[in-house]
Each structure stands twice: as structure tokens, then as C-alpha cells.
Amino acid sequence: MTRPVARTDWHPASWQSLTATQQANYPDAQALDRAVADLARLPPLVTSWEVDALRDLVAKAQRGEAFVLQGGDCAESFYDCTSESIVAKLKILLQMSLVMLYGLKKPVVRIGRMAGQYAKPRSADMETREGVTLPSFRGDLVNRNPFTADDRLPDPQLILRGYERAALTLNFVRSLIDGGFADLHHPENWDLGWVGHSRMADRYHDIVNSISGSLDFLESITGRPLHHTQRADIYASHEGLHLLYEQSQTRYLKHRQRWYNLTTHFPWIGMRTTALDGAHVEYFRGIANPIGVKVGGSMTAESLQELIGVLNPNNQPGRLTLIHRFGAAAVEEGLPVLIRAARATGSPVLWVCDPMHGNTESTADGTKTRRFDKIVAELEAAFRIHREMGSHLGGVHLELTGENVTECTGGARGLSDGDLARAYKSSVDPRLNYEQAMEIAMRIAGLHLDNGR
Ligand code: PEP
Ligand code: CO
């Protein structure tokens, strides 16, 4: 294997000498420098001990002793940084994790795509509408969505606004959790209000009653409250796409003798930025966080092995998560190749399935959607393929919302293409709505609605 880049001196800005794809073109370099300097002065959003705790949990999931639920919006929006939206996201993650805990009989590690999921990769730098060409929308961290020249100009101040909103989001999540919102004794706090009668709601309430009953039973026989079950932690994650944003809060912690990205617990490298000789891989190799890498059909066995070597040279447990996203049609052929390749390195990885990004399609009128059946098909195939190969799927990565949007078709309510216009809110990829997300959780837990298990 040849290493494409001589990797010696890493520092938070060493990526700058390599090609950084998917970065915005800021018109005013000085204004950008000022914003980045301002960002670097602010306190971090997370702490190194939380980051280390999550790495240990990922290591547990690698050993098959825990399961990771990673989920949230495709892109968070500044506008949706509201109490209602944050509470709804927290509730859906908590409800899903409860169902999964019940069915899988192992701890569920909750990682939100939240508090920083503001930058988006785009397939084209420019967008043309009716003869007018403007920079593509790259997420609220970079520019604004309306199709005007002013809105599409990258604005460095948005980096600061994004960081502040990430802080507001995390602050609220932490307060809710500290205040007992996530107490497993009181899952009634998380009810999102099932619409009309739903068989899933009945099933969910049975599970809640059964878990509360077991907790009460255990506590009464031990005479002690179960501290660990009282608080359900939620970790933050986002795609580490905007490298100046990531770099600004990358700190050397003397007591640990390592560099940490303290904008989030778990940053991941998106599918479009996994080039071995690229800036993203260079940046990520130097931080101590547990990290994810999206992999799919375009990743060869050799590239994956080299990536693993660069990103986890010491084979550290918990360090590396591979999030595969092939699409239902390609997973059978593509996944075994990568499982074999990773295994041959001897380095531990956590396998997580993202059944969303390989299953995006457009309806006749051009609306981006995903079919529930394909999402389920990819997920079920992933579980089976890992099992058949003596590997195991240790987590799932989903785009979802606690709201009743109509963005993906199918599911228990049988949404069709014609329903999409009713409540389509995402400005980027289509998300599972509340009931669709719960249905996925039930299936992962092995609780199919029709077999009554
Ligand atoms: C995403 O997770 O929103 C995304 C863009 O995914 P991918 O990098 O896998 O295409
Ligand atoms: Co997406």
C-alpha cells in the first residue's frame, strides 16, 4: 500500500496545504479571518471527558454490547432552533431508544445529528435557474437558501451564528436531561401525541409499561434507585465538512496530551470528502474524538484499508465508525467487500447502517423522496449480511424528525407521492416522520406490528 501524502506534522491547520473540497468561496478573506478568530475565542461546546466517554461507548458497541442510534435532520436550520423542535427531536430519539433497548436487550447510545449539523455538501458548486447562475446553498452555516445573489453569497458571520445556535441547542438539551426529562421512570414525558389511533402507539405503551414495571421491581428488590437508568445521555454529532469551523475549536488538552474537536462529540466525514489525500482526512486523523466515515459503492477495498490505517493507526477501540450507505439495490453486492476489507486490517470498527442516503429518488414532479420499504429493505439486508459474514451491525444512522412531516413515502399510513406536498418541510433530504421513525425502531427491536411479538 502506498501512502499518497507524507503524514508527519499534524496540527489543526495542517489540512490547509491539501485540497479541501466542498468549501465555500468567501468573497472577503479578511472578514472570514475575523469570524474564525472570534469563533476560536469562544468556549467549547463539549468537554474531553464527554468525548472520551462516547469513545468508550462506541467501543462497547464494537464488541456487540451496545447499539448506536444516530439520528436527526439532514440539515438543521437556524429557523428551527426552537424549544418545540428541540424537544420533539429529543423525544423521538428517547422513544426509539426505549423500544430498541427493550427489543435488543442492550444499552442504546443516542447520538443526535444536532447542535452543529448546519453545513451541507453539494453535488454542484453553482445552481442555475431560468438562466441565472448563483452559488449553491451550502447550509445555514455558509449562506442562505433563497435564490438571490445576496442570499447565496457566503457570509462569514454565519459561522458564529451557527456556533451560537449549536450552543443554545445543547444547552437546552442538557437542561432538559439534568431536570429529569429523560428519566426512564417517566417516559410519559416523551409522548409526542400519536395521531389518531395507531397500532404502534398501543405497542409502544405496552413496552413503556413493561419497562417501568421492571424498573420498579428491580428497585424494590435491591432497595436502591437504579442511577444509571435514570439519565439517558444524548451525544451530539455533525458532518465535519466546514474545516475552518472544525479547526477553530480544536484544542490541545495538556492533561490528555491530545487534540480534541470540541464543537461536537462525534464528527463524521461525509461521503464526498473521503479522499485519502484530501484535507478532511488530514484534519480528522489528528483529533482524538470518536469519528465516523460514510462509505458506499464508490469506496474500494484498498481505499478503505488505507483510510483505516490513516484514521486509526493504533487500532484504538471506539475510535472509528464506518457508516455504510449503499441503497437497497446495491447493499448485497457492495457491503461484503467492505466488511472483508476492514476485517483484514485487524483494526476494530463499528458498523452502522445509513439506509437513507442510498435510497433517495425523485417523484414525477421532481420532489426528492425516499420509500419506506427501501429503507427497511436496506436495513434488514445489512443486519443479515453482517450476521452471515460473522460481523455485526452495531448501529443505525437515520434522517428523521419528531414532527408529522410528509417527506418519505410508505410506512404504516401508506403515504403516497401525492401526500408529499401536504407537509414537506425539509430544505435538503427527506426525513422519516414520527411514526415512520418509530416503525423503524420497532423493526430493529424485532417487534413487527403484524406478528404481535
Ligand atoms: C448526509 O448525511 O446528510 C449526507 C450528505 O450523507 P452522505 O455524505 O452519505 O452523502
Ligand atoms: Co442528508
Can you describe this structure?
The protein is of the alpha/beta class and 453 residues long. The chain has a single domain (33-444), classed as Alpha-Beta Barrel (TIM Barrel), CATH 3.20.20. It is 38% helix and 14% strand. It contains 13 helices and 14 strands. The protein has helices at residues 29-41, 48-62, 83-104, 149-152, 157-178, 199-222, 227-230, 243-248, 279-285, 301-311, 331-345, 372-388, 434-444; strands at 67-72, 108-113, 126-129, 132-135, 234-239, 250-253, 258-261, 266-269, 291-295, 320-324, 350-353, 360-362, 368-370, 393-399. The chain has an eight-stranded parallel barrel, surrounded by six helices. A two-stranded antiparallel ribbon has the order 3-4. A two-stranded antiparallel ribbon has the order 6-7. Helix 3 (83-104) links the parallel strand 1 and strand 2. The longest helix is centred in the middle third of the chain and has 24 residues, at 199-222. The protein is globular, with a radius of gyration of 21 Å. The chain starts with 28 loop residues before the first helix and ends in a 9-residue tail after the last helix. The model has no long low-confidence stretch (mean pLDDT 92). The site of phosphoenolpyruvate has 10 residues, from loops.
What's the quick description here?
With 453 residues, the protein is α/β, with parallel strands linked by helices. The chain has 13 helices and 14 strands.
